[in-house]
Amino acid sequence: MERELRAIVGEEGIAAEPGWFLTDITGLSGKADAVVLPATAEEVARVVAWCYDHDVPVTPRGGGTGVAGGAVPLDGGIVLALDRLAAVRAFDPLLWRLHVEAGVKTAAVHSLARDSGLMFAPDPGAAEQSQIGGNIATNAAGPHAYKYGATGTWVTGLEAVVPPGELVSVGGPIRKDVAGYDLKSLLIGSEGTLGIVTAAWLRLLPAPEVTLPVAAFHPDTQSGCEAILRVVGSGIGATAIEFLDGETLACAGGSFDSAALPEGAGFLVIAEADGSAAEAARVQAELIEALGDGAESVHAPADRAGIEALWRWRGGLTFAVLARRGLALSEDIVVPLDRLEDAIDETAEIGRRHDVIGLSFGHAGDGNLHSTFLFSPESEDERARAWAACEELVDLAVRHGIGWTKRGWLERQWGPRAVELHRELKRVFDPKGLLNPGKKLARLRA
Ligand SMILES: Cc1cc2nc3c(=O)[nH]c(=O)nc-3n(C[C@H](O)[C@H](O)[C@H](O)COP(=O)(O)OP(=O)(O)OC[C@H]3O[C@@H](n4cnc5c(N)ncnc54)[C@H](O)[C@@H]3O)c2cc1C
Asked: Is residue 131 predicted with pLDDT exceeding 70?
């Protein structure tokens, strides 16, 4: 297999040390017969064609930061990593658009836009490592999705390789496209199960002049959730509304600016205003008023260093939480905003029932919780209890995304016909079921 694939991608296109390519940030690991790193979209097409001819499964891979194990090869075959497709094909700052290959890092997209006074709005964590292709494949969101939407909102066109190995383009550098079915949106969020994204046209925005966050420490979940509903209900134009419950604060509070962290805080809401200096200041004042009611203290850094420190701290939460017991099982769940308080309380309660720490933090504005159960790697018993807690959690929420770690739970949310439509779509794109088998939906082979 390696010899024939090497004939397509050359010596450099076969990873000499597969190690990291067989696992990802979840710690799950799989096996593959080869790790292939094509350098061009045409090479991706030829590799997929070869795999289709030989019934070899293909696991597409970006930066390996997905939290559902999507990039881990479960069925052998090849890992097809997009790292070498890292060219910026075109950048038109005056038209607010960018054409990049899939392997370009998310942080590179951000900095390219920023250098021209523009902004690429989606801001999932792990941007230094994740790739734009991976962000598209997972339709990644992030704190600012509350105002700006998830990655898919900013994709106007895609180039992708679909079985049995053909390069297709859908959409393009256009701002409106209603011809035909919306194949672009089908590929977005499909986790590499329908096609392999090789390049994307992205829409940018002029960067706001100023961004001003507000961090409000509340005594408990009820008071914090009431404050969140006040912000939403009064129509304040926040760009982001994030939350941390009391247990999360217990994990991460130690690294927060100690002068700003009040004793006994049980819940934190972080919101942000952006726009021109005057507009951002007006919205920030409204946020301080709405979030400050019932709060123990409000921290509103106005200098660049303070603002960056706050968001850097927020960005490191996952690792602070992990450090508490060593490992964690985390589910990305979404609830209607008026049920946020219940979902946070219920996560903690489920944890208590299974005798593990249950906590949540996440994107309050989107009703999106990272409900998390902690366990020690040294305790098989604690791990089993954390799994049991996770299982119980699924019933309380509408699913946010079905990765390998979550497959089999789809049927609990949708009716049989909706599941059947998903399976039929998979069959149309990938009749042999070779693209990222076992992911997104339960295993499906023609
Ligand atoms: C600290 C941290 C914070 C995060 N915060 C957020 C957040 O706020 N919001 C959010 O939505 N997500 C968040 N994530 C998860 C986020 O979805 C991923 O980090 C990112 O989008 C995945 O990109 P990746 O390049 O690492 O993809 P990978 O992990 O390599 O792959 C993810 C999936 O996409 C597929 N894939 C990858 N590249 C391609 C391609 N070119 N074509 C087709 N399929 C492909 C893979 O097969 C896999 O199924 C976070 C993750 C971490 C570790």
From this structure: yes
Reported pTM: 0.92
Going by C-alpha positions, the residue among 63, 106, 57, 98 that lies closest to residue 82 is: 63
Q: Are 427 and 446 in contact (CB under 8 A)?
A: yes
- Could you say which DSSP state residue 39 is in? S
| The pLDDT value given to residue 233 | 95
Report which ligand 1 atom has the smallest distance to the Cα of 59: 47
The mean pLDDT value for 262-277 works out to 94
- Mapped onto helix, strand or coil, the DSSP state of residue 327 is strand
Q: Is the dihedral of CA 81, 86, 87, 93 positive or negative?
A: positive
Query: 381 falls in which pLDDT band (50, 70, 90)?
Result: very high
CA of 243 relative to ligand 1 center, distance in Å: 22
Q: In a mutational test of the pocket of ligand 1, which residue from 20, 61, 193 has the highest number of ligand atoms less than 8 Å from its CB?
A: 61
Parallel, antiparallel, or unpaired for β 358-363 and 368-375? antiparallel
Give the H or E element holding residue 99.
strand 97-101
What CA–CA distance (Å, rounded) separates 100 from 132? 8
Around Cβ 39, how many Cβ atoms within 10 Å? 18
